[in-house]
Specification:
The chain has 184 residues and is mostly helical. It contains seven helices and no strands. The chain has one domain: LemA-like domain (de novo design (two linked rop proteins)). The radius of gyration is 24 Å and the shape is elongated.
Length: 184
């Protein structure tokens, strides 16, 4: 009788651990998805601001049209990307193109004083900071999730229910690793 109680207690503990491990993995996976959507929100904000910035600058800087066209092209690629890897790559290109947008402010005194331009520049800076923070948080959540499903004995439960590693959001170029500078 005592051995039956011990066996049932061991089974109950194992079942509780199993349920706890499974539910923990589900929570972490959902957190990863949520944080990716938060990154996505900031990227969408960036995409909405860029056309306004480009149009404002175009009026003053006709000879920068090639750079502005690249920014527009990369924005479009980023918005139309299907996978996280494609989206990350397109956003890396966009960040590089934004970093390359350099116009001498002295040549455009009206632009320097333009309130719309100053607001757009501030919004773009703020958005880039938010994107950076969102990427960091996303990578932290992904790392926590990947650790959760890889450590033993959780890896057994993860394997049974096909939990797979998530990709970190990484920048592929040195230019993309730097904050874009829009200097006029």
């Amino acid at each position: 009788m005592v051995s039956l109680i011990i066996i049932l207690a061991i089974i109950a503990v194992l079942v509780l651990w199993f349920v706890s491990a499974y539910n923990g993995m589900i929570r972490r996976r959902n957190e990863v998805d949520k944080e990716w959507h938060n990154v996505d929100v900031q990227l969408e904000r960036r995409y909405a601001l860029i056309p306004n910035l480009v149009e404002t600058v175009k009026g003053y800087a006709k000879h920068e049209s090639e750079t502005l066209e690249k920014i527009t092209q990369y924005r479009s690629q980023a918005m139309n990307a299907n996978t996280m890897a494609e989206r990350a790559e397109a956003n890396n290109n966009l960040t590089s193109a934004l970093a390359g947008l350099k116009i001498q402010l002295e040549a455009y005194p009206d632009l320097k004083a333009n309130t719309n331009f100053m607001q757009l520049q501030e919004e773009l800076t703020s958005t880039e900071n938010k994107i950076s923070f969102s990427r960091q948080l996303y990578n932290q959540v992904v790392t926590n999730y990947n650790n959760k499903i890889q450590v033993f004995p959780n890896s057994i439960v993860a394997g049974m229910f096909h939990f797979t590693n998530k990709e970190l959001f990484e920048l592929s170029t040195t230019e993309a690793r730097q904050a874009p500078k829009v200097s006029f």
